[in-house]
# Entry
Amino acid sequence: MTPNKRPAWLIPAVAGVLILLPFAYSLGRFAWVRTFTAPKPFLEIASAPSQRCVRDPKWMRQNHKIFLNELRDKTVREGIRSNVTLNSCSQCHKDKTRFCDKCHQAANLHPDCFDCHSYSAAGSPAVLLRGGP
Amino acid sequence: MPAPVLIKPDREFRNRLIASGGEDLKKCFQCATCSVVCEVSGASQPFPRKEMIWAQWGMKDRLLGDVDIWRCHQCNDCSQRCPRGARPGDVMAAIRREAILHYSAPRWLGNIVSQPRLLPLLLLVPCILLVLAAWARAPLETFLGGSYTPNRIIISYWSQLPQWLLIAFFAPFLSLVAVVMILGVMRFWRDLKARDREAGFIGQRRSLAASIRLAARSILLHEDFDRCTSEHSRMNSHRLVLFGFLGLIVVDLWVLTARFNPLLRGAFAYPFNFWSPWKILANLAGAAMLIGCTLMVRNLARAGRSGALFAGTWFDWMFLALALAAVLTGFACEILHYLRVDPFRYAAYIIHLATVFALLVLLPYSKFAHMIYRATAMVYAAHTGRQSQGGLRDSE
# Structure
């Protein structure tokens, strides 16, 4: 047996800490965001209530991300353009900070849509709010 | 007076041992040097002398249900000091291989794993299955509810193999593996108990919970490896591989929960940023496994050249090669992905998945199974009071 100056538990302990660290990080950040940085989610009501959304609002609340991703994929991969765009959302939901951002911040989400796309009613093409893709 | 022992030699079994690494087994003349020099063996019922004579006589039932073949960590102190060059360490390894093939049903799968020429098949079959799964994705998606299957909540490495498809692909096979492992361990435990009844072994029993704690402690601290003299460095490589493997499993299980885990949303969303603690853990664990496996390859190759020590059989090399291949293809995927090298990153991904699949599905039939049987044996040894005998030279 070779003389072993390090305590036997040292390496397992280091491995254990390394393995548990990501859990602690995830939990900690989740708790931090929930407690300190999250505003109460609040959805602005559409400012043009006479018009109807392209889908049922309840469904949209859950699935708008899938919906938008599908639209994106159809456009960039298959070349099928839709009349519905982010800009057409802004026809009714005018204020991004009060519509999109409120919920995204509350849920600690960072969608990359707005990295490229602007969200404004101005300059948007004429949209059909009925129907969809 | 004990009942007379009727010996039913199993020549075929003995010949298999001789063919799979135990070729010097008949040189043993029962001097018991091995049992004396073994640092892991207990004071009562020492090994591997008794296993050597059982092996010479082909006493299959005694060997398969013998707890001591698994308490051996193949330090090879015995093989080095053996005056006859019978290499008890290698014989113990050959017996363990037989035990794995015996307890993990179905046997034919184990036989395939233990044949070198069928290795390409082991990798080709999962490759073909994965390509088929990728090909079946679109019809399946339509069948499961059109293009609105929410498969883009998690951005796939490759959209042809989205997460739901991989889970659907791996889960049934891994469930079968789990069943095979549980059944194998149950049969093994029953045989261990039967052997002790036959031999009339009575030790200071411990509770099962305490035994599991003791065994876990021993595994994590590598206490038995630490007792090795002639190949003490094997402890380091095994430690790297074990903890690397644990790290990778933890990351994998975490990523698997991405669909419903609230902690995996928003800024933590999969795929992880390179500096995300999860990614760092995965990369560190992969590096640990890579280094550990490389050290193992080096150790075995060096031992093979010297001729005196254990050089590994096909059974050892295949497991090592699969583990190494899984890590290397994993890193290849990562690098090719960061460099966006199409289509090689997808090819690397398929090969990586196939390797991981082969590694996990063959778990009960390859040397990987030492994980479950050795752990079981260590728990059993503690449970029946064997551990309390301790090594002959317990430190402190």
